[in-house]
Specification:
The protein is 53% helix and 10% strand. By secondary structure, the chain is an alpha/beta fold. The chain has one domain. Strand 5, helix 12 and strand 6 (297-302) form a beta-alpha-beta unit. The longest helix is centred in the middle third of the chain and has 24 residues, at 193-216.
Length: 426
């Protein structure tokens, strides 16, 4: 009989990489399923989905052209309308972070390093046929050249650094028009009014369902934990959109029943948290997990891996192709609160509005070490929250499983201070 040590020596690099990724994924999924009150039964679809894709490396889109996207700002409506599927490539695996560290500076953003690591390993469940890299975050924009050197086809999509001016709006519209034309030519597909309208309506319906689920989280007794919501929204990165819509519809019905039954996923005194900052990408959900393990509950977020993906819907005056393309461009620019913009008052207002709408007790602002735009903007956000009398904590972390003790201590102290504040307010 071959012992375990000998067995691992016989593994190929790909098999070893799969095993390490599966270990990370299973550890987080087990915590989500077993360390809290009973999750909604409808969450089983999402737990199984992540296990299939990240543990078993099961492809979901073998019959489709796959367009990998490096950022939320790539319009998925255009990709769907050309009979392809968008796959967001932002990566949360520490296994990949370690691989990517050989190709990027040590102080680079762990999300970017992990994304590069996935390309270096070339170990995708669904390998993208084309990569679209918008010029948003500097590190992501520069990483496009590394990805191209690894043998992948990369399309650079220009994105403005301001959004208030007429010039920036027109610049972005032209960029989206060009992207539509170029992608259409690359895929050999003609974009039609019928296909584009169907795509806009389908993505819009997905947004509608997300907002419907979010409204239920406004109840003082929340029917779903924040970590489960992050898993639901992360699934939108790669799942078949029709399957995602079906699963969320089932989840909504169950959560509506939970609200009616006054079921509470948290405890009576659990502080309500708005989460903002660098995006929590599965399986790097350590900060959201620590927050809810500390007896708080995340009721809303302002991140590009969740809330920001589903913000404003496409507004169209006339259902003609050019009008729809311009409407899609506007949706991705006007509603964006990414810190890459030179001015970002909208983001501060958005966080404050979420605190008020969801009756939150405090804000957790988390930035990845090396994520410069979030690190730079934290001071102005903290000042805006303090001015409004909103308690806020700033946390800096990476993908490493180390420093959990220090993070746990700080989060637990913050949660306890919110509990004391609530007690004094009564």
């Amino acid at each position: 009989m071959i012992n375990k040590t000998r067995k691992h020596k016989l593994e190929s690099p790909k098999q070893k990489h799969n095993r390490h990724k599966a270990t990370e994924a299973i550890m987080i999924l087990d915590k989500m399923k077993h360390d809290f009150k009973e999750p909604p039964k409808a969450m089983k679809y999402f737990y199984d989905l992540f296990e299939r894709v990240h543990c078993k490396n099961e492809p979901l889109h073998s019959d489709k052209v796959k367009v990998g996207t490096m950022c939320i700002q790539v319009p998925s409506e255009i990709i769907y309308a050309l009979d392809a599927v968008p796959l967001r490539l932002c990566n949360g695996f520490y296994t990949n972070d370690e691989i990517g560290s050989d190709f990027l500076p040590s102080k680079a953003c762990p999300l970017v390093k992990a994304t590069i690591g996935e390309f270096v390993s070339n170990n995708f469940s669904d390998k993208p046929d084309l990569i679209v890299s918008p010029t948003t975050c500097d590190q992501k924009a520069k990483s496009g050249a590394i990805i191209e050197d690894l043998g992948f086809s990369v399309y650079d999509m220009e994105f403005p650094r301001t959004k208030e001016s007429h010039e920036s709006r027109e610049y972005w519209r032209r960029s989206v028009r060009k992207f539509t034309k170029d992608l259409s030519a690359d895929l050999g597909k003609k974009i039609t009014k019928k296909r584009l309208k169907k795509s806009v309506m389908q993505v819009g319906y997905a947004q509608h369902l997300y907002h419907k689920l979010n409204v239920l989280r406004k109840n003082i007794k929340s029917p779903i934990l924040g970590i489960d919501m992050f898993l639901v929204t992360n699934a939108f990165f790669f799942d078949k959109i029709d399957k995602w819509i079906e699963a969320v519809d089932v989840l909504i019905k169950e959560c509506e029943q939970r609200v009616e039954d006054e079921y509470d996923c948290a405890h009576k005194r659990s502080p309500r948290i708005v989460y903002t900052g660098s995006p929590p990408i599965f399986p790097n959900l350590k900060i959201p997990l620590l927050i809810e393990q500390a007896d708080a509950i995340i009721v809303a977020d302002e991140t590009c891996s969740s809330n920001r993906m589903f913000n404003d819907m496409v507004s169209v005056d006339e259902w003609f192709v050019n009008d729809m393309i311009d409407g899609i461009a506007d949706r991705y620019l006007k509603g964006c609160t990414c810190p890459i913009f030179t001015k970002n008052e909208d983001r501060k207002r958005r966080i404050i509005d979420l605190v008020k709408e969801y009756k939150a007790d405090g804000v957790v602002y988390q930035a990845f070490a090396g994520c410069q735009v979030y690190e730079m903007e934290q001071r102005s956000v903290l000042e805006a929250m303090e001015k409004e009398g909103i308690p806020i904590i700033y946390l800096e972390s990476d993908y490493s499983p180390s420093h959990l003790g220090q993070l746990t201590t700080r989060i637990e102290a913050f949660v306890e201070s919110l509990k004391n504040r609530k007690r004094k307010a009564k």
